[in-house]
Amino acid sequence: MSSSFGTLFKVTTFGESHCPAVGAIVDGVPPRMTLTEADIQVQLDRRRPGQNKLGTDRDEADQVKLLSGVEFGKTLGSPIGLMVANKDQRPGDYGSMSQIPRPSHADYTYRAKYGTHASSGGGRSSARETIGRVAAGAIAEKFLLEEYGIEIVSWVSSVGAVDATGVDMETLTRQQVDGCDVRCPDAVAAEQMTAEILAAREAKDSVGGVLSCVCRNVPAGWGEPAFDRLEALMAHAMLSLPASKGFEIGSGFAGARQRGSVHNDPFVMKNGRLGTETNRSGGVQGGISNGEPVYFRVAFKPPATIGQEQQTVDFDGNPAVLAAKGRHDPCVVARAVPIVETMAALVLADLALIQRMRA
Amino acid sequence: MSSSFGTLFKVTTFGESHCPAVGAIVDGVPPRMTLTEADIQVQLDRRRPGQNKLGTDRDEADQVKLLSGVEFGKTLGSPIGLMVANKDQRPGDYGSMSQIPRPSHADYTYRAKYGTHASSGGGRSSARETIGRVAAGAIAEKFLLEEYGIEIVSWVSSVGAVDATGVDMETLTRQQVDGCDVRCPDAVAAEQMTAEILAAREAKDSVGGVLSCVCRNVPAGWGEPAFDRLEALMAHAMLSLPASKGFEIGSGFAGARQRGSVHNDPFVMKNGRLGTETNRSGGVQGGISNGEPVYFRVAFKPPATIGQEQQTVDFDGNPAVLAAKGRHDPCVVARAVPIVETMAALVLADLALIQRMRA
Amino acid sequence: MSSSFGTLFKVTTFGESHCPAVGAIVDGVPPRMTLTEADIQVQLDRRRPGQNKLGTDRDEADQVKLLSGVEFGKTLGSPIGLMVANKDQRPGDYGSMSQIPRPSHADYTYRAKYGTHASSGGGRSSARETIGRVAAGAIAEKFLLEEYGIEIVSWVSSVGAVDATGVDMETLTRQQVDGCDVRCPDAVAAEQMTAEILAAREAKDSVGGVLSCVCRNVPAGWGEPAFDRLEALMAHAMLSLPASKGFEIGSGFAGARQRGSVHNDPFVMKNGRLGTETNRSGGVQGGISNGEPVYFRVAFKPPATIGQEQQTVDFDGNPAVLAAKGRHDPCVVARAVPIVETMAALVLADLALIQRMRA
Amino acid sequence: MSSSFGTLFKVTTFGESHCPAVGAIVDGVPPRMTLTEADIQVQLDRRRPGQNKLGTDRDEADQVKLLSGVEFGKTLGSPIGLMVANKDQRPGDYGSMSQIPRPSHADYTYRAKYGTHASSGGGRSSARETIGRVAAGAIAEKFLLEEYGIEIVSWVSSVGAVDATGVDMETLTRQQVDGCDVRCPDAVAAEQMTAEILAAREAKDSVGGVLSCVCRNVPAGWGEPAFDRLEALMAHAMLSLPASKGFEIGSGFAGARQRGSVHNDPFVMKNGRLGTETNRSGGVQGGISNGEPVYFRVAFKPPATIGQEQQTVDFDGNPAVLAAKGRHDPCVVARAVPIVETMAALVLADLALIQRMRA
C-alpha cells in the first residue's frame, strides 16, 4: 500500500506539507548497529531547501528526532520511529489558489481521488513527504556501508539542455558532488547549468533535469527474479518521487538502439572473480546484481509551480489566470540528489535482507 | 516477494523455460464476470514465438487451461488457477553452453544467487515466465474494459535507429498494430524496421527497440500517493520484464529538458469535465490518474543470445568463445507488445480495486 | 512483517517501554471523516494503568498527539501519524534484573533473537507497544460505527476460577462494562473477581483471566476465504497481544465436544433477512460474516512479574533468586478490554475496505 | 490477501471442490534441496478421505504433480508449481440443495459475499482447498527437518467428550499416531473415540474434536514481536482451517485460571543451554520461540453436513427441511492431522527464513 515501501527493510512514512510533523517508521533495521540522530541529519541537511542561492529562500532547519528503536546509541532491532517537526504549520497558506487547480500539480487529482484536499501546498504529494524517506534511507545507507562497503553517489547529469560529461563514476564522491550548488561534478557543465537555472528564475519559469546515480560494491546475487528484479524495484522507487518522469538503467534507452554484438558485456577475470569488461547492463543481469556498479538515471520534469501567468480554468470550468506568488524553486534536481540516494539505499537494504534467507 | 504482483488483483506465477508447465494463480478477480479460455488465448497467441518470419522457428502452441475459479463460464470470485503445458521439456538442452556463462544473460547471476541454475535456457529469467503474466493480464483487461471501458494498446515505436512517427494514440487499435509483423502502425517505419531486423539476423546479430503503450479511459483518481504512484507501479511492472532497460511516462526524459511554462498542462473543459489541453503529464499528476490517456514507453535491449562468436571467459575464468547454436529471435519487441499491455492491465486492475475502498 | 497489521486499513506501530515516544501510522483511513484527538483519547484513557485500586500505581497520562492526515478536524485520506510521549524515559530502570532473565518474560528470547535487549522493562514486548494500536483502533471503531453502525464491546468474563454469567451480549454497553473496576458486568462475579485479584496482590502473586468480546451489526459477507477468514485474522490479532494464550470463536472448544445436530445453526427469517436461530458459529460461516453478532473469547495468562521469590538461573546458568521490586499489576485483563476491542476493530475495518473491492 | 500465506516462504493456493484441479505455488523454497513428488505424496495420502472405515467412502487418489521449480530432483529456488487433478468434477452435483443454504455451511455467506456460489459442495470453503496447503507444507517440513531437525507431530486429543491422556509429546511419532484410524495415541481413548464416531454415524449425526500438535527442536529466536508473534501466526494458520473454532498455546485457557507463581516457567540449565523447567509457555515467550517444544491445540466443530433432517429456511425465507444425501464424514479430526502439521510447518518455515535476515 501507498505509504510503505519494502518487504523486510520496510519504511512507512506520514506527513503532508503543513501538518505538525512528518516522519517515518523504519522496520527491519538490524540490531546492534550504532546509530545517532547525527547519522541521519547529514542527509536531511543535504535535502533541505534554502541551502544556497539557487533554491527557495525558506530556511527550514529540519531536525530529526529519534523516537524509538535505539538505546545508548545502538539499534535494538525494533522499529525506529522518527519525526521532523514542521516549523511552518500554516494550513490554508495557499488558500487563494484553492479554487483553481494548478496545472501539472496534484490539486485536481487529489480531489478526484479523495473528494478533499489538504488546503495548503501539495499535501501528501509535496516534497516534504520525502523527509521521512531520507531519514530512513540514511539508516539503510549506514547498514549497507558498514556491512557490505556499498557506496551510493548521485549527481546532477543534466539541467535543461545542458549535459554533464566526463564524470568518473568509479571514483566519484559525495564531497565532489557537493562541491558546487548545482551538484554537478563536471565544472564546465555546472556553470552552464547554474546559468540555465538563474535564467529560468529570471523568466519566472522553471527547468527540469536528470540525475544519475551509482551504487558501488553491491554483491552479486541481489534482486528477485520475475516481478522484483533489482531494476524493477529501483524503477518503482525512483518513479515514486515527486516530479520524476523516467528511469533507465545501464545503457537504457540508448541501448535499445544498439545491436547485441555491441551491447553485450563479455565476462573477464577481475581481482580473482568473474566481472564484465563493459557494463552496459548497469550491474544487473536477469534482474540480479552481477557485482559490477549498479547505475541508473532518473528524469525530473520542470517544477509545475511558476511565477508566470498561466491560462487555465477553475474547478467549475471557468477561465482563470494563475501565477504563483512568492519565490519557488526553479529547479529541484540538486535537492533531489540525497533523495535519489535514499531510495536506492532502501531498495538495496531490502534486497540484502531478503537474499540472507538463502544463506 | 518475487513471484507475486499486486495487492488486491494479485497474480502469482510459476515456471521456468523447460519445466512441465508454466502458469499463474490470479487472485482478486471480481465474481460473476464471463470468462472462458478463449478470452485468454487471444493474448497468448499474440505473444507466441514462431508466428511470423521475423521470430524464431519454434512453433509452441501455448494452450491455456483454466483449473479453477470459473464455473459455467462465469468467475466465482475465488482464485483462478491456470496453466500452459510445456511441449518442449528438454532440461539440459543447452548443456554445451553450461560451463560458459552467456554474456548479458542471467547464467552468472543465477548461480551467484542460488548456487544452482536450471540446466537449460534462461530458467526463471526466460521469456516463458511471462506466459502466466499474459494469461492473468488478459483477465485484467477484460475486467477493465467491461467495467470502465479502458482500452490498452501497445505498439513498436522504434527498432534500432528507426523511429515510428505519426501514430495517433487516441484512436490506435490492436488490429492496426497487428497489421504487420513488426507491430508498428507507421507503415514506412515498419518497413525500415523489418529491414533492420532481417539485417541483424543476417549478421547473426540482434537489435533492440522501444515499445509505446497507451491506456485510454482510465478514470481520474487511480494511483496511491507516495510509494505506489501510478507511474511507480507502471515502472515496476515494465522493468520487471526480461530485457527491459528503461521506462518513461508522458514527456519522460525529453520533458526533463523543458521549461515549466512549456511543460505544464493547462486545464480546459472537455465533454463537461475538467481535462488538460496538452498531456505532457502522461495522464498522471501527483501519482494519480487525471482522466487523460496514460501513455508511456519501455526500452528493450537487443537480445543477448547471438550467433556471432563472442570472446568471453568460462565460470573458472578461462578464455572461451561462445556462439549460440540454432536460430534465435533477433528482435523481441514485436512479441513484447501483448506483454507490455498485460503488465499495464495488471497495474490498472489493482489500482481500480484499491480505489474502490474509497467508494 | 512484524510491526504492521492489515492490508488496506493498515497500522504500523513503534515504541518500546522507555523510549521517547510510542505511536503509530494508520494508513487507509477513509477521507472526510471527522476526527479529533479527543476521539482517540477516550480509548487511551480506558487502557491507561493507574486508573483504580486494582492496577499499578503509575499514573501515566497518555496524551495522544495527531501529527498528520487530519486538517480542520477532518481526515484527508493520507496516513495518520500519531504519538504519545513517554513521560517515564528511564532506560536501565530495571537494571538490577538484567543478568537474570525473568521467568516467562521475553528477556531471554529477545536476547536469542536480536543479540541485544532494551535495558529496561519489556522493550518492544511491553504493554506500552499497545498504545499505538489502541489509538489506531479508536479510528477504526469510529469508521465502523459511522459507516456501518458496528458496536464492539469487550468485558472480563473470568478472573482465575471466577466466571461471569448472565451477560446479555445483544445489549451490553461499554458504560455497563466500565461500571466496576474489574470490568465485569456480572455484579456478583465482579465482586468475587475483585477479591481474587486483591488476594493475589496480597500474596505478591498474579492471576490470569479471560476476556469476551462481541461485535454487533457486522454486515454479512466480510472475511476472505482460505487464509484470511474472519476468525483467522481475529485469532491472529488477539494472539498478538502480550500475555494472550488462547482464542475461541462462537462455541469454541466447547463446540468441539458437541454433535452436529446440536451445534448447527438453522436459518430463520429475522427482520426481513436470513438469520440464524442460534449462533454457535459466532457470526461466521466458512470464514465469512453471516450478519449475526461476531463473538469470541481470549485467554490471558497471569502476569509473569510477581513479588514472590522465584528460583531460577541467570544468563550464565548460575542459580539465582528473583523477586520483582515495586508494585506490579496482579491482573491485566481489565486494562486489556479496550485493547481487545481495538484489535477487533482493526480486523473489521480492514475486511470492510477489502470487501468494497467487490462493490 | 486471501489466497496467500507467508512472507518469504509463501504459499498461494487455488481450487474449489469440483473444478479441474487444486494446487499451489510455493515461493521461497530454498534452492538445492532434494525434492520429489513422493516427498509430498506422503502427507497427501495421510489427508485423503476414504482411507478407513471411519471416513467417507470416496476414494480419491490425490496424485500430486510438480510443475516447476525442481529439476533432476533438486529445487532451483524458483517458485514450485504443483497440482492435483480432481477426478470428481461434477459441478452441480449437490444441486438439489442449492435453494436451501445448509445450516452452519458457507452457502449463505458466499452468496452474501460474491453474489454467486460454486454450484457444488463447499466451493472454496471445501476441505479440498487444503490439498494445495498440505503439498506446500510437506515441502516446508522437509526444509525444517533437514536444516534444523524440527519434528512436527499432531494427534487427536479429543473426540466429543472423550479425552486422550498420557501422551508423551517429547517422544511421540507420526507412526504411533497413525497406529489407529482415529489417530489418537492413547489406545484406551482411541477405542472410545471410535465408538463415539460410529455412534454419531449411526445417528446420522456428526461429532467434533480437538487436535494437539507439538513442534520439537524449534531454535530459540523465531517469531516477530508485536503483530507477528509466533503464536499469532500459528493461531492465524489454524483458524484458517475449515471447521476450526479455537486455538490455545501452552497452558491456554486453563492457564488463565492460574496464579503467576504456578504458571511461570523458571529457567534451568539443559544440555549446556538455558531451558525452562516447565513449559506452560508452550515454547514461546514474548512471541518468540525459547527453544522448548512449541505445542498447541485446535478445536474443530462437528461437521455441518449431517444425514438427520434439519428444520431451516430456503434463500427466500420459506420453511424447508434439509437432510444430506449420501454418506458424509461424521468426524474430520483424524484427517485434519496432516493439515494441522502442514500449517505449523508453513508458519515455522516462514519465520525461519525471516530470522535469517538477522544472521
From TrEMBL, chains A, B, C, D:
- Which keywords appear in this protein's UniProt record, sorted alphabetically? Amino-acid biosynthesis, Aromatic amino acid biosynthesis, FAD, Flavoprotein, FMN, Lyase, NADP
Required cofactors, per record? FMNH2
Annotated binding of FMN, by residue = 124-126, 286, 301-305, 327
InterPro entries membership: Chorismate_synth, Chorismate_synth_AroC_sf, Chorismate_synthase_CS
Q: What class of enzyme is it?
A: lyase
Name the EC number(s): 4.2.3.5
Q: Where does NADP(+) bind?
A: 47, 53
Protein origin, superkingdom? Bacteria
Q: Write down the CDD domains for this protein, in alphabetical order.
A: Chorismate_synthase (cd07304)
Annotated GO CC locations: cytosol
Write out the GO biological process terms: amino acid biosynthetic process; aromatic amino acid family biosynthetic process; chorismate biosynthetic process
Family recorded in the similarity comment: Belongs to the chorismate synthase family.
User: Its biological function?
Assistant: This reaction introduces a second double bond into the aromatic ring system.
Protein name (record): Chorismate synthase
Name its species: Desulfuromonas acetoxidans (strain DSM 684 / 11070)
Taxonomy, top ranks, is: Bacteria, Pseudomonadati, Thermodesulfobacteriota, Desulfuromonadia, Desulfuromonadales
Gene name of this polypeptide: aroC
